[in-house]
Amino acid sequence: MSDQATIESIPLYTHLDRINTGLAALGIGPEDPIRPDQLFPLDQWHYHGTDAIGAAAKQINLGPNSRVLEIGSGLGGPARFLAHTTGCHVTALELQAKVHALATDLTQRCGLDGRVLHVCGDALSHPIPDAAFDAVVSWLAVLHIPDRPRLYARLARALRPGGACYIEDLCMCAPFAPHDLRDLHDIVFGVSVTSIDAHEDDLRAAGFIDVVATDETADWAPYTTARLAAWQAGRADYGRVHGEGAYAAQETFYAAIARLFESGSLGGVRLTARVP
Fold it and tell me: Of 129, 185, 202, 257, whose CB is crowded by the most CB atoms within 10 A?
């Protein structure tokens, strides 16, 4: 879904008000400064939180001189964590305007706006300079982008010689039943969920070398089940603050993901590669 109006019409399955509520519980108001570490429990909406981001930074050797492009940066959690812990500079590209605006505000309040540049745009069309980055990274965003070959070709061009690519995404382990495919499209908004082999083929066709795919399904499946159970256990508290509708919308998403993993059709993959 590359059209901004289409994206804007979709209810967020991760509610932005969670951030302000979580900060308020720490005594932090909507205009107060924030320590980066105070956001870490709140702004990492992917599997295994900051542990996953830290592991990625080590694997692709990010440091203070690294220039990083993040695709589908969301609220900026990974970008801020990378900038805070490694000193790297991150260009955080996010399509959804409301998400982008909140991410920008949080980064400024953390004092990281000198190292994280938030950009609102479509990864398939927004201008990306050639050979400007040492690494491109993405967590659970590629599945929402309809033309993956075009995306990967753009990412390859954006990297300097020897630059690294690190992606975590959903994948297809077996054909989806018709009702599961509807959930994948209508609830998860997954428009490019394919086999791991197809991911690898697209990276190589874009010019990447040393492509390595690691199947994360056995690790992510129980994570999604535990996440759903934890969400359901907190139903009363969340519903009391945000309303039953907001709770139900998030539960629908978490339940769909857990069910798709349990069906054996949905899986997870970590992909690393580099350009020559």
Answer: 257
